[in-house]
Design brief:
By secondary structure, this protein is α/β, with parallel strands linked by helices. The chain has 2 domains: about 200 residues, D-Maltodextrin-Binding Protein, domain 2; about 230 residues, 3-Layer(aba) Sandwich (D-Maltodextrin-Binding Protein, domain 2), CATH 3.40.190. Helices cover about 45% and strands about 10% of the residues. The chain is globular.
Length: about 500
């Protein structure tokens, strides 16, 4: 057993030496990722570095166990059969993971949202996975046939791999296709707005649709975008980033906020403008997507904005809008002679190894096993929360049937317009918390949009000074490189 395991390790080492972690040419052909992870687990056992009766302890988000254990626990059963290592899975609430990871000392693997990475790294709460990937000869492929999508955004902080992608939660817009195609609606819209009823290219066109289709007396609302206090930044950022070409950045070169500006005010006004056409409790604490999304799925709203999971949920047999909705390219703004559109990563359930994990290597190896191209498709098709994150999954017929081919094709075509998540800075939770609170105050009528942006800018300056401006400038300069440059001709 020991000799065989050593031979396996030597073969893999000789094949994979020199491969760059970010998807070097040929990385995807280095062998089956899952098989390689299993071989590495057996090698650790043979060397006495891992007990044969070891248990992998994993903590995932509530309601998402099927994404990591498989439909009818098929992934868990396969892992345990192939490695002999049992999985012990616990759950946590659908909230940011930072404080939960800070308090945990017995978890080998857990999940975190993209925007949390800078704080997790700055607090030394998660493991730099780069040495472990190198140790076991893994590369993270980025080829567009089967690799990870937007790996730099999903896995990296600087040049370090800090997470293994297991979800792709970029914001997407969804609207009622059947209403857009209805002759009576088209005629009424033409009469009111003096233009044809069509999919929105700009935020102003989107706002007209929201207003037109709002029928609260019938229990039907123009928009069911979330508007509660904690997650406001997720639905404000696409509006703000699209106000300049190629991006409207959050800070200048010296980390002075740029949100206290006509761009910031315009984004906030657009964010606030949907509130009168939203379900009545949208501004209340805790009324996140779990409150707003059902309005869309039950057929009581024209539009919503969330992740591509919306397509999966809306396509279920018990959905009132199955066959009646469409995923839509994110609206934007015409800047000069170009249409600037931006999305951003919002939620996300990517795999991280806590810094105090008892079995760090085992956590990494399970992450690589689970996100193997074949297992990734099985994970996504299990109908949990995790969405496609490898290119090959977009072409998998099980996944396309679940989400609709149209949504999968749009997700792929929208990748060039996705901005990195949050601010990219240590203190991200503070920056985003201030922004979300202030735009909520604006949406509640307690501040004007201009006042909300001025207040945000003052609070951001204080956070930057407290964190150390020189340090934050360095982080910001690195993060800015991840922003997209794609623009389009106006439609």
């Amino acid at each position: 057993m020991r000799t065989s395991a050593k031979r396996i390790a030597a073969v893999w080492s000789s094949l994979c030496v020199g491969l760059v972690l970010l998807g070097a040419s040929g990385a995807a052909h280095c062998g089956e990722q899952a098989d390689k992870a299993v071989a590495a687990v057996k090698l650790l056992i043979a060397r006495g570095e891992l007990k044969p009766d070891a248990v992998l302890r994993m903590r995932v988000k509530q309601g998402n166990t099927s994404s990591f254990l498989g439909r009818d626990y098929e992934l868990q059963k396969d892992w345990e059969k192939q490695t002999g290592i049992l999985l012990d899975v616990s759950v946590m609430p659908q909230v940011d993971s930072l404080e939960i990871i800070r308090r945990s000392n017995d978890i080998d693997l857990t999940i975190a949202r993209n925007h949390e990475y800078p704080d997790l790294v700055a607090g030394r709460l998660i493991e730099d996975l780069t040495p472990l990937l190198q140790r076991f000869g893994f590369a993270l492929p980025v080829d567009t046939n089967g690799g990870y999508m937007l790996l730099q955004h999903q896995a990296m902080v600087g040049d370090r791999v800090v997470a293994i992608p297991a979800d792709l939660d970029m914001a997407m817009l969804f609207v009622r296709r059947d209403l857009l195609e209805d002759p009576a609606q088209r005629a009424a819209f033409r009469e009111r707005f003096k233009r044809e009823l069509k999919l929105p290219s700009t935020w102003s066109e989107y706002q007209q649709l929201v207003e037109f289709f709002n029928r609260p007396k019938e229990g039907f609302y123009g928009s069911s975008e979330p508007r509660e206090k904690l997650t406001g930044w997720m639905f404000w950022m696409p509006r703000y980033l699209s106000t300049a070409a190629s991006n409207q950045y959050l800070f200048d070169e010296q980390m002075h906020p740029l949100v206290d500006s006509p761009a910031g005010v315009a984004a906030t006004e657009s964010y606030v403008a949907t509130v009168p056409y939203s379900p009545p409790q949208s501004l209340e604490d805790g009324k996140d997507y779990s409150y707003t999304l059902p309005f869309f799925v039950r057929g009581n709203a024209f539009a919503t904005m969330l992740t591509v999971a919306t397509a999966k949920i809306s396509n279920r047999d018990d959905s009132a809008i199955k066959g009646k909705f469409i995923a839509v390219a994110m609206p934007g703004r015409v800047v000069g002679n170009r249409l600037v559109r931006r999305s951003q990563f919002i939620y996300g359930n990517n795999l991280v190894v806590p810094a105090n994990a008892p079995n760090k290597a085992l956590g990494l190896l399970f992450a690589m096993w689970l996100t193997d191209a074949d297992n990734a498709a099985r994970s996504v098709a299990a109908n949990g929360i995790a969405d496609p994150y490898r290119y090959s999954t977009l072409a998998d017929e099980r996944v396309r049937s679940l989400y609709t081919p149209q949504a999968m094709d749009l997700l792929r075509s929208e990748l060039p317009f996705v901005a990195p998540s949050g601010t990219g800075l240590p203190g991200d939770s503070e920056y985003l918390g201030a922004l979300s609170n202030n735009i909520w105050l604006a949406a509640s009528g307690k501040l004007t949009s201009k006042e909300a942006m001025a207040k945000t800018a003052r609070e951001w300056e204080a956070i930057t000074d407290a964190r150390g401006r020189a340090q934050q400038i360095a982080h910001w300069q690195a993060f800015k490189k991840l922003y997209p440059s794609a623009t389009e001709s106006p439609r």
